[in-house]
Amino acid sequence: MEEEPLVSPSVPIRKPCGTFKPPAIYQKLMIDNLTVIRPPILKIFYWESFEITGLNRKLRSNRIEHEHTFKIPIRQIHSHPLKMVFWIRNLSAANAKLTLKRIQNCQCQPQQTQVGFNQFRQLFHCPHRRLLHISQEILSINPDEVVALTVTAYFFLYGEHLLTYEVHTEDNRKFLWHFHLEISSFDPEKCLLTKELLPVNIKSFYHITQPLWVQNITMSHLSFSFASRDRGLKLLNMNLTVPRQSVWPLLVDYRPLDYENEAEIVLTYENTKARYKIKARGVLTDEKEQTDMPLKDRECVDFLHVIYPNRVNFEICLREDRTQLVNVHNYGQQCMEFRWQSYIINDFFAVVFNPPIFRLKGHHSKLCEIRVTVFDRLVHFRRIPIVLEVHRILDRATIIAKQELEEVESIDDPKWKEDSYVEHVYLHLNIRTNIKPALDSEELEPGDRIDPTAGPEPCSQVGPGEARRGNGSGDGPSTPAPNTEEQRKEAERKELISRLVAKNKLNPNEIIELSMAIDQRITIFEKLFWKYLSKSKFMRINGERKRQKVVKTYEQVVSPDKTTPLEAASEIDRNHIMDLLSRLMQEAINDLAKNWVFIPSQYYERNH
């Protein structure tokens, strides 16, 4: 009897429901920098008006489409064209290609135009096309490369205009970039650049003066008068004359009544009045200006004179002087003359420069000292426009002709009357006055008080990682990991200090790293400066100096000499000491900069 074979139950065959497609990953871009040629106001106003930070978030995101509006600040009719350079960086590992195409927003239609004898064609005579010009319609960007996109705005047509460009990429992304232009004559309602007062610490009871920046876009000087009925707002210069095409401060003292406030200011020009609503905030802790605008401008054909850094902050006490150094570089081929404009507000502060006038050959740099003196008033100023004028150097014959023929009126605008002025470059300056020095403040965090002579941690010989695990038996609670980025950097800095201090002998690079970690210096220039001083004989005792050899016992050296009269205590002038130190540092850095090949190859910025 044969056994029947076992038959397995039939299992239905499952068909795949579809292939899984991961979301597409698009190429990432960003606006690395912005250059404005001969701007009427500081670059940070353009950076904020264009919302570059928000645009970078959109370009770095994985969105296939987005829209963005570049709002160009208001300009007067028939003003000089404004050229802007957007530096676009390719953050992806593959080549990126951008194609720009203009989209028509106006209602202009082709018109029949005579092009020859008895010949007519339908041509497009749209004036809006000439308001904005983009020089490159196709951009090819290699990985980690920066390419310039040049945009030029022209101001010859009254009104508000919105010009749109469509940007396509190789990976089928589409961007809509709108350029908003506002062209008008003088308008009193659009003279105030400041929309919000600086935050005021409501815990302090001091009156701090801050500015409201008033802009004059016309070619003539304008006189304004201001008034306010707010109880906490005090105007210090109610009658203000603003020079042509410049920005001037309206000084105010404000005490907030709440965390969120709004103050009203009335501007009067001749018989016209304009009302402004200014936001004001009260805070419990002092806030610093937050911006991601780069500190260094990129040079290009139309921007040959660069100040580095382009933004300087001063934290200073009353009746004190502070100095900082900035570098002026001439990327051009000709020797030019540079003139600093001093910025002095009586009874408040003064900003002067050393040297005030200097000349620079092509591809040469000059270190300039900025000296800020604060008087008897507490101030908090941001976005002070410091002007550096650039002049061409006139030949001797032209100078003689200008001197001899200055009073001759019969010659109508001869060539020798041409001014030497070429352009101006802005330096962004912030000044804040403290009641007492920052080193004596009790609000410093414990991590900011560093003792450079302190030894290593008790368990540093077993390694930095195991020294922080807790108790030796491992029963105690472990130290929590740093939560924020600042705490992590602070922990790394302390670990670096303890590791280097534990060594018996340090090489020159480790000495630089230790000094930078203690003083929290991160600039390459200071790193090279201290490395140069460590290898040079600057301020060192030479072999020719005579020394008095005195034989003393150990007791004579240790025990003080009671017969020696004590020196009378003299009053220490802190400003004089800071002046000497800044002068010594400037002379040493100028001596260092005479040889341009001193930068080691590992510190080259190869991407720029």
C-alpha geometry: globular
Overall CATH class of the domain at 29-184: Mainly Beta
Mean pLDDT: 79
Report the C-alpha radius of gyration, rounded.
32 Å
- Protein structure class: alpha+beta
The number of distinct β-strands equals 30
What is the oligomer described by this structure?
single chain
Q: Low-confidence parts, pLDDT < 50 over ≥5 residues?
A: 437-480
Distance, first to last CA? 92 Å
Q: Would you give the CATH topology of the domain at 29-184?
A: Immunoglobulin-like
Set down the secondary structure blueprint:
Elements: E1 29-36, H1 43-49, H2 52-60, E2 65-71, E3 75-76, E4 82-90, E5 96-103, E6 111-116, E7 119-123, E8 132-134, E9 138-141, E10 146-153, E11 159-169, E12 174-184, E13 200-201, E14 209-216, E15 222-227, E16 233-235, E17 239-242, E18 246-254, E19 260-269, E20 272-283, E21 305-308, E22 311-317, E23 321-330, E24 336-340, E25 343-345, E26 349-354, E27 357-360, E28 364-374, E29 380-392, H3 396-404, E30 421-434, H4 485-501, H5 508-519, H6 524-535, H7 554-558, H8 574-593
Parallel strand pairs: 2-12, 3-12, 13-20, 22-30
Antiparallel strand pairs: 1-4, 4-10, 5-9, 5-11, 6-7, 8-10, 11-12, 14-18, 15-17, 15-19, 16-18, 19-20, 21-23, 23-28, 24-27, 24-29, 25-26, 26-28, 29-30
Helix pairs in contact: 4-5, 5-6
Region (Disordered): 441-492
Protein name: AT13609p
Task: Name the features.
Immunoglobulin-like; 35% strand; globular; 608 residues; six-stranded mixed sheet; alpha+beta; 8 helices; single chain; AT13609p; five-stranded mixed sheet
Tell me what you see in this structure:
By secondary structure, the protein is an alpha+beta fold. Among the domains are: 29-184, Immunoglobulin-like (Sandwich), CATH 2.60.40.10; 200-283, Immunoglobulins (Immunoglobulin-like, Sandwich), CATH 2.60.40.10; 305-398 and 420-433, Immunoglobulin-like (Sandwich), CATH 2.60.40; 497-535, no CATH class. The protein has eight helices and 30 strands. The strands form seven sheets. Strands 2, 3, 5, 9, 11 and 12 form a six-stranded mixed beta sheet that branches. Strands 13-20-19-15-17 form a five-stranded mixed beta sheet, with no helix packed on it. The protein has a five-stranded antiparallel beta sheet with strand order 21-23-28-26-25. Helix 4 packs across helix 5. Mean pLDDT is 79; it is low at 437-480. It comes from Drosophila melanogaster (Fruit fly). This is AT13609p. Residues 441-492 are annotated as: Disordered.
